[in-house]
Specification:
The structure holds 2 protein chains of 2 kinds. Chain A is mainly α. Chain A has 11 helices and no strands. Classes of the chains: A mainly alpha, B alpha+beta.
Chain lengths: ~350, ~900
Amino acid sequence: MNPAALIPTPDAIPVPWGWFYVLLMLTFLLHILVMNAMLGGGIIALISLFRKDQQSTLLSKEIGYKWPYTIAFAVNLGVAPLLFVQVLYGHFIYSSTVLMAVWWFSIFGLLILAYYSAYIYDFKFDNLGNLRVFLVGFSVLILLYIGFLFSNNMTLMLQPEKWQAYFDNTEGTLILLSDSSLLPRYLHFVVGAVAVAGLFLALIGHFNFIKSSVDRETLISKGMKYFTYASAIQILIGFWFLMALPKKIMMVFMGASTYGTALLFIGIILGFLVLYVGYKKMVMVSSALTLVALIDMIFMRDLVRIAYLEPYFNLSELVVEPQYSSLNFFLITFVLGLALVAYMLKLALGCRKEVTK
Amino acid sequence: MNYPVWDLTTFGGGFLIAFVAVIHVLVSHFAVGGGLFLVLLEIKAYRDNNDGLLNYVKKHSKFFLLLTMVFGGLTGVGIWWTIALLNPAATSSLIHTFVFGWAAEWVFFLTEIIALFIYFYTFGKMERKQHLIIGWLYFFSAWMSLFLINGIIGYMLTPGAWIENHNFWSGFFNPTFWPSLVFRTGLSLTLCGVFGFVTAAFLKEEKLRQNIMRTCALWVAAPFTLMVAGGWWYFIAIPEPAKTIILEKSPEIANYLQLLTWAMPILFIASMVMIIRLPNSFQRVFCFVIVGIALIYFGAFEFIREGGRRPFIIYDHMYSNQVYVDDVADIQKSGFLAASKWTQHKTVTDDNLLEAGRDLFKFQCSACHSVGGLLNDIEPLITKYDNPFGMDAKLNGLGKLNHYMPNFMGTRDERWALASYIVFELNGIDKQTLANLPVEAKELPVEIPPFDKEKDEYVLLAWNNLGMHCISDSDPFWILLPPANDIYAQLVKRGDSPEIITEGVEISYQVEDGFEYPEKHVRFWEFADKLLGANLAPGVGVSGLKVSGTMGLDEDHRAFTAPFIPVVPYPEDGSFNPYPIFTITAKDKETGEVLMTTKTVAPTSTEMGCKNCHGGGWRIAGVAGFTDKTSLDVLEAHDKNSGTNLVERATNGEPMLCQSCHADPILGTKGNPELLSFPAAIHGWHANFLTDREGMETCVACHPSRPDGPTQCFRSHHSEFMDCTNCHGTMEDHSLSLLKKEHEAGKKGAARLMENLKARAVDSVADINPRTPWHNEPDCLTCHEEFEMGSSMDAFNTWTEGADDLFRNRHDQMEAMMCAACHSSQHAVYPATLNKFGANRDSIQPMQYQGNDRPIGNDCTVCHTVQPDFEGHHPNSLRL
């Protein structure tokens, strides 16, 4: 059977695809930042709990304070890119999602448990004793599981040739384990998350947003250490991921496309730069470079998607039935929302100063 | 059909989404109103300088944060998750149509989270005015989320002008947008009080607790009016036919409607109980009971709203099974499987029948029907179908007369495949078990009475007047025909100029051995007073006759008749014989001398195939008769579809004659003048389930004429080259001819039954000639022009002028012999050698008088002692 025959007919979009593309890239970047802080933060908190020194415990406590926020915002900021990816690639992602329905359905229920566990950890930290490890471990395991499912789905949606497995399993229990790029792809996210979360901790220290009594310098230095080591591993995994891609797709970054090759080149340079500034504990420079590196990687990720789907679909094929007024409505809402957020943060930060006075 | 379908079986039928949605909507509405609750109580605490209240508000805000943001927020995402898995096509449609609505909602979700975090974490640390501003901003954001989602959810039930213009705003501000917004706002405020009880119940200080309990009760009571008013406005705004489906038609909604009407006042009363100073231990339990009542109440509402949308997921745009309304016409032509991307099979073959059926079930039915699950379980709905024919008919009729299910989408072969899958796989019927066994013909002995052409002076001709005759022995529940057949006889005195004798003779009839006691075989006489309003002694028929007796003279017809002889097809040996033989004897009234004796059959079959679709199987010998189950199911279907209480009546021992409401000329009942005549109603209704069949497949599903059946009532030579439809038309045409007459008479039920019927023998319904049942019937002379050999085989649509012109009532051109006297009864006109119970069983008189099976008069000298040389009876009677 021709795999293309399985691909559903996409629905029309209200404005040209470029709008959704920009929104997808932008909101995905935001999601990845917060998601990294959440997942990586949880991993670091777990590791720190196994170290018995006081600063490590305080570090886990500090993460505990921030954890519920990161979960809330990782979810919220995940909604937007998932919305926009459904607009552009809905016919692929809905299909792959149904194939792994049981796993996918389990996500939000488990996430609720992870979330509550994080809140217990936050609110009851001092009274928990040894239970801390279990609560953090429980949440981290769930988050890792969810991340794996996301990697799985994002890989499966790109490969209609694998969808025929549906005809042997219609119960939604398919899971992609054999794909050679899956594991490096997944690890690339997980290890990257630890790096960014390390940086996140260093930034908390740098801007002194500390709520626990963890030592500020320790926080920065431990954070930068996680950042640097994880980044080093990340570079290796990046190469593994690249090699694990099907040759045609790999070559997009190795000569077949100037744009792709440039992105990879920039990525490698940034990777090594980040290692250097990380080692030097230059928090702000590391942050700036990491942000650029993340943007670079997001574009590379998008190129991978385009290359995978190239035999089947191109975004320009989407039919546009123009309804600009709804876009305008959203843009106005978006600006209004940002203004509200800015206003509320201003009030909140002002209040924080008063309290610390 | 565009997307794969998650095979859920037990958890199918919308269970998952119902599960996630019901708990989410309760919390998410609380998340909206709760914002106002917090702010207003905080203001009150400041104004009254009430630290206790302020502490309560802070404590409540933590509960609020943990419940609404974590559970509410994630179950909200969960709904999106779930619908994308259960109905990706609809999800995609909603996402693409309203992407910027969703995106805007996401913005408010973000501001909602930020506001709530700040509100909770800065409680008591922020300047009061600023803190209140944050609270107000939270409420604004949450309410805006409601505002936006309300538009999209409302669109699914009432897309309004969007269907035509596909404009974002038309869909968003749809006909139920504002009423639904008012209802949901009122509800969200009511829920603040409901959840307020929970946090208040755990306050330690009694006075504060009781004060807050009262405040919460007020929060339930005050917006309750807004909610009820909004709900009523909402209901009024729902257009037809959704409103009718909610109120009357949907089998699933009725329970929820009842639940809603009970839960609403109970919620109010239970909340008011909290005003009373009650033991704290009671309050701590009862507050959760109130939450439970609210959950039931709101859950019922959501079920009704969702159910009212049937059979659509987006009204008039997409069916629940992910098929776009616009695609249906193509699917009907090219087939569902071929049009579906994810079905395993693309066509139906003999080899893949059941697998193709499984595909069809999955992609067309499983969106709403679970298999053995909690919601819309398919299993109890199909248990009565023990054969694919009945199931196929059910599928054939889907969505035509009741609109809570869509039409079956696909070809005939696909429908058959689905029916076979449902019956053999889901219903577990053994494929080898045939619903209707083929019955072998047998040769029961018939003794032909003697006739001596040289000596005998008389010829006695007898026949029955109802050719394809059924009776329904469903007596304890209903009947459509009591045990009855009419026997006619004409006595001819032979001679040069034969004479019809009507005076000075007595004609008696006597049923054959074994059929003498019909009352022992059917329960008609137990219920005759209820069924017919007549007190009949056991064994006595409607006209007062028994199975043996004397015939009366019908002067108009110059014939002797015995109307409504209560004969049944059950001989004493427990078998089934629809052709009991009656011996007819003519005697001189004065001397008692037997002038002539003959025999005739009086068909009386209970092979009425209701059970093919209504289930229950055959009662007698595996071939005929009504079981209680069949009879009851017929009434259940009638009650469900027409709002009657026939099951209740029958259970109370008051079965009814169908024709007591539905007029019928054959029984002479007037019925209810507003209702369709019985033949129009029964054919018109069932025609919707039996369209596009070839030949007499449809006819024999109900009438006793199945070629391999036990009766095979169409037994004349005509049956060798014609079937029922040649004269009566196909089921659609036949029904339309009846319905059209009713429609012209202003009967309002006709249009509904005609809506989905297409004329087949002629180009359009306009070309079908309306007719009165039993009066305007096919005319033999349409084919047999001038009594010649048939010139065509198409007698449909040319009707006899009236009852007098019917074959069974007509005479020859001398107004002497009745047509049937020489030709036998309709459906068994001579030669009628195809009787399953013996080749001569229908030809006793030709055999007796002529020694052959041709019509009487084949040899003129049967009656005419001198060969006539002119055609007195009708042209071509001498075959010159």
